[in-house]
Amino acid sequence: ALEDRPARSLVTVWTYGQVSINFQYMQNSPPFDDETRRLELLRRLNGILAVALPQTVITRFPTIPLAALKDKSTLKQFLEILDWVVQEIQAT
Questions:
Q1: Which of 19, 34, 55, 75 has its CA 20 to 30 A from that of 26?
Q2: How far apart are CA 40 and CA 66, in angstroms?
């Protein structure tokens, strides 16, 4: 059950204008302990204009400048990706 799992943050928003994608935490919790799921998340993030993270980041804490999410359309895409992550976690 979800309530039995340890709490993990998906992202961290920093006051210096960056948002971290917490892949390192994700790799220890289902369903993102599966590398293919983290690669799918990376693919979705890289589908956002101005985001180009290399595949090597799926075990780390890569950052995206908040300025890259300034456009309403881009921010909407980013939030939809986070919604997808939450749905994936709830489905396991």
A1: 75
A2: 22
